[in-house]
Design a protein that fits this description.
Divergent PAP2 family protein, mainly alpha, 4 helices
């Protein structure tokens, strides 16, 4: 039995784990290959950022009331995180892809030497999420606290 005081924390952490494992399963169905890297990867479907903050908000709402100040705070926090994952971080990743392509194109088209250490860095281009990935995380985050509720209360 989980103490009710830990219900929001357990809901959020479990939603994160479910989303991260879900990414591995989704990748398998898309590619036919198992890649356990997705268990710790950012980006992909469903968004673990979205699932975590949504589960936290949902659990707080169930426990404290959806008309509580604490729920309002966690809901706003959740919206900010999901917006960031879907917009700011997603487009940062797109910018990294563009810069990598430009550097590759310049290497091929000219005699410019790219021997500075900055050009050797491996940049991660998948930083954020597409809208559907955020929605997937949101759904996971709604479901997990609802499944845990009978075990807590």
């Amino acid at each position: 039995m989980i103490p009710s005081a830990l219900y929001p924390l357990v809901s959020a952490l479990l939603a994160n784990v479910v989303a991260q494992v879900g990414k591995t399963i989704v990748y398998y169905f898309k590619s036919g290959k198992w890649d356990l890297h997705w268990v710790i990867a950012s980006g992909g479907f469903p968004s673990s950022h979205s699932s975590t903050v949504t589960a936290l908000s949902m659990a707080v709402g169930i426990q404290e009331g959806f008309d509580s100040t604490l729920f309002a705070i966690t809901a706003i926090f959740s919206f900010i995180v999901m917006y960031d994952a879907c917009h700011v971080r997603y487009y940062s990743g797109k910018n990294i892809e563009l810069v990598k392509q430009l550097v590759d194109d310049l290497k091929e088209a000219s005699l410019i030497e790219f021997d500075e250490p900055i050009y050797q860095e491996q940049l991660k281009s998948v930083l954020g999420h597409k809208f559907i990935e955020v929605v997937g995380g949101f759904v996971v985050g709604l479901i997990i606290p609802l499944l845990l509720t009978p075990l807590i209360f």
